[in-house]
Amino acid sequence: MSSSQSDRARELLRLHRDPALLTVVNVWDAITAKVVADIPGTKALATASHSIAASRGYPDGEKIPVAEMIAEVKNIVDATDLPVTADLEGGYGDAADTIRRAIAVGVVGANLEDQVKPIAEAAAQVAAVIAAAEAEGVADFVLNARTDVFVKAGDRDPAEVLADAIERSRAYLDAGAPVVFVPGKLDLDQVTALVDAVGPQRLTLIGLPGTPPLADLERLGVARVSYGPLSQRVALTALAELVESVHQGGGVPEGTRPLN
């Protein structure tokens, strides 16, 4: 591992520990990485596995071969000097090895889904990933251990889902993860309960329509908000709207930015 990679890992961890909320608008290839990185205020990049898979013709859910995922992540890392954290789904069958492969291309953090596995199994996977990162020389690797209990809640009692998320989050922190990721459309009371349970600057969330304002999340002690595949959906919506405009006799909108 290069000293620059070590520095980027340390900086990514610092950004999560800072009381200022870290926001990352997810990218899926080199050009989106460059565009996002060039916007003032961008401090780190995060990939979106769903978006990368879609851009290569695969559905979400570990259908893309891990080699293709890592290859696209490398393109993103190579496009910026900022720290990059990679969304690596559930680890593609061997989470520790996948983390090693990601580190080899310059990644300094990762999302890892628990896919609602038994909690002991999921915590052991977190511990294995942390051990793998340390063995590769990245002691400050920012594993964002994700629990899918809200995503897959179905008709479960919301109070039970919250309790499950808290138990899993604590287990993953105890296993060595520096932060935990609880995606879902959460209200302020649920976010408050999670932060109270895991501590400030330990919880990361996804920004969905209807998510509490970023200022409120920062005040509560949330570490980071990311946007997953929503950034790609916004971009594709703009593309679809351009096509509709052209079909109606219009054209490229005024104010469209040039690519550098």
TrEMBL record:
It comes from the Bacteria. GO terms for molecular function: lyase activity. It holds the Pfam family PEP_mutase. This is 2-Methylisocitrate lyase, PEP mutase family. InterPro entries: ICL/PEPM, Pyrv/PenolPyrv_kinase-like_dom, Pyrv_kinase-like_dom_sf. Keywords: Lyase. PANTHER family: CARBOXYPHOSPHONOENOLPYRUVATE PHOSPHONOMUTASE-LIKE PROTEIN (AFU_ORTHOLOGUE AFUA_5G07230), PHOSPHOENOLPYRUVATE CARBOXYLASE.
